[in-house]
């Protein structure tokens, strides 16, 4: 069985934002695009209302909205209420406040997660080969074999026992492994 796992934090959306007096072409994260799309239906939102609709914590949502404040698409007036700036006025440019939207750390975390996922994929290849040859192995035996064959040399990849156990349990949930009587084995269709 195959499954599809969405990675909502990755990628960019290129979109044209059409306002009364200007059109902006921007590349933003999918979450930032979704936030702005809600302003098509309603010109003004409080942070709490938008948080409920988008299903995102208020603090995180505020950071996502900040990119639209920086672009001059939204304004916060009164505090906690955001509305669309259809026509840019000179005083809007003067009052524009630049806020760190924290997206650099998001992409950094995403790339760090991608790197970890690549390492785990390397482990998975070895684990599949071990289980194909030896049929079933305990967590400790898999770990010691990985330490012997994979976690040595110049391209040092590390994983601790708890991380490995979590990764193997994820493979069990994804039906790529079977766990019974304290040992892991590949499903019959995989071997």
From TrEMBL:
Q: Which InterPro entries match?
A: ANAPC2, ANAPC2_C, Cullin-like_AB, Cullin_homology, Cullin_homology_sf, WH-like_DNA-bd_sf, WH_DNA-bd_sf
Name the pathway. Protein modification; protein ubiquitination
A single GO molecular-function term is: ubiquitin protein ligase binding
Matching SUPFAM superfamilies: Cullin homology domain, Winged helix' DNA-binding domain
- Which SMART domains does this entry report, sorted A to Z? APC2 (SM01013)
A GO biological process of this protein is:
cell division
Q: What PROSITE patterns does UniProt report for this protein, alphabetically?
A: CULLIN_2
**Which key words tag this protein in UniProt?**
Cell cycle, Cell division, Mitosis, Ubl conjugation pathway
Q: Which residues form a coiled coil?
A: none
Protein family membership: Belongs to the cullin family.
Q: What is this protein called?
A: Anaphase-promoting complex subunit 2
> What is the source species?
Castor canadensis
Gene designation per UniProt: LOC109687367
């Amino acid at each position: 069985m195959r499954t599809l796992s969405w990675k909502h934090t990755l990628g960019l959306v290129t979109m044209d934002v059409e306002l009364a007096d200007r059109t902006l072409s921007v590349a933003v994260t999918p979450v930032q695009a979704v936030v702005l799309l809600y302003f098509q239906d309603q010109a003004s939102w409080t942070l709490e209302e938008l948080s409920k609709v988008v299903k995102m914590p208020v603090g995180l949502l505020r950071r996502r909205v900040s990119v639209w404040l920086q672009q001059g698409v939204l304004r916060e007036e009164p505090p906690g209420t955001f509305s669309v700036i259809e026509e840019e006025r000179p005083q809007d440019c003067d009052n524009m406040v630049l806020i760190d939207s924290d997206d650099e750390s998001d992409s950094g975390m995403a790339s760090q997660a991608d790197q970890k996922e690549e390492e785990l994929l390397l482990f998975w290849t070895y684990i599949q080969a071990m289980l194909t040859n030896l049929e079933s192995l305990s967590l400790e035996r898999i770990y010691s074999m990985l330490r012997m064959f994979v976690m040595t040399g110049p391209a040092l990849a590390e994983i601790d026992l708890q991380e490995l156990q979590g990764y193997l349990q994820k493979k069990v949930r994804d039906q790529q492994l079977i766990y019974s009587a304290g040992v892991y084995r590949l499903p019959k269709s995989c071997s």
